[in-house]
Design brief:
Elements: H1 10-21, E1 41-42, H2 64-75, H3 88-104, E2 114-117, E3 120-127, E4 138-144, E5 149-151, E6 154-156, H4 159-176, E7 184-190, H5 204-210, E8 219-225, E9 240-243, E10 257-258, E11 261-266, H6 269-272, E12 273-274, E13 277-278, H7 284-289, E14 294-298, H8 317-336, H9 351-364, H10 378-392, H11 400-416, H12 422-425
Parallel strand pairs: 4-7, 4-8, 8-14, 9-11
Antiparallel strand pairs: 1-5, 2-3, 3-7, 5-6, 9-14, 10-11, 12-13
Helix pairs in contact: 1-11, 2-4, 2-8, 4-8, 9-10, 9-11, 10-11
Amino acid sequence: MVELTRPHGSSCLRVAAAVLTAALLTGSCGPPRSGETLPVRTHATVAPTAPGASACWPHQPLTPTANVDCWVRYLASPALGGRDNLSPGGALAAEAIAGAFDAAGLKPISGKRRQPFPRGVNILGTLPGTAPALHDNMIVVGAHFDHIGVVNGQAFLGANDNASGVAALIEMIRLLKDKRLRRSVVFVAFDAEEPPDYLTETMGSRWFVDHLPIPRASLNAMVAIDLAGGDLWEGAGGPLFVLGLETFTLPPQTPKEAGGYAVRSLHLRAIEDLPTGRQSFSDYGAFYDIKVPVIFGTTGRSPHYHQPSDTPENVSAAKVVALAESLVALVRELDRHDTPPRWRHDAPLTREDARTVAHLWGLALGSSPSPRVPKALRPTAGLIHQRIVEIARGTGKLPAAEAAAVVRASLAFQCLHSDMPPAACLR
């Protein structure tokens, strides 16, 4: 976990809040910046009797929620010590995931199940496509399995970040393996997503992109999963978020709901347009940088993000399953078309993005209100909500000023649900 030293002055504080907390709907803090200090991280000693994942699918037949719970509890067990990359617990996690890929019948890539690199190992598996004309058209689905390990003597187990994402990935394998997709799907469990590797050449997804084990021309799209089973605050419930659809010239149709949860789409700019410049916040970023259309599935950053309380008890297996189902629907939609997906750059925000941001503010002020909006700030928050609702109800393309207002409202919401003082986020 990166700790940011807060600068003095309200305007600087607002900038720091936006920089630090634009990861609310994402899975990473970002690299160290000037003025930051890194905590002391050590590797946990893993007991030789650490339980395996042999009780989970595909080794055992389980219901979807039971299987997700099984994987989350294994990966976030104290025996794995927080799965820091290059740690014994991280190695156990990698072996368990590789074993699951083997048991599920995924094919290695060029004969290799593992892609080692200086700071860890990515685990690879392919579900081959059935259509000869599309067999070499590939969709990558990825989730990072590392977490931050032991910090200052305290184990950070990383149940939602990102054992839940790996569980969702494995559930997607279960749902897709008998669907006879025409395109091939490459499943990757990435290592080394967390700081200090984040946004460096030794980040697992970056290493994968820089050393592609498949031809670049075959790479059609990428689906990233991060923070798959949390709530924005206790009692918030849904929704599920799908970001990045604007990177497709013909975006796949998003399901309206999955597993009883609403599915909401959102432009990546709504979480990335920081005062310091645009920045990606999960494994999709490396693919975005080489102009591959991306989909980012998440349930958002919960209060347990990068805390010792990020334990299996605070992950909803039903929500993880629902997110996996929604992403499977999108993958199948992409597979339905003969023409491969094409990259679109600088797509504008839409009224749908405004509706998603308005929905978030409505949740924060609703029947199960956010504890991060104190009574004294509710009038200000209400004005923000009202403005975005008005934009969402409009017609036609969003003018630039309205699009900027939507992004500011999104970043303010994220800032509110960080560790920053709430008043600083609404000035």
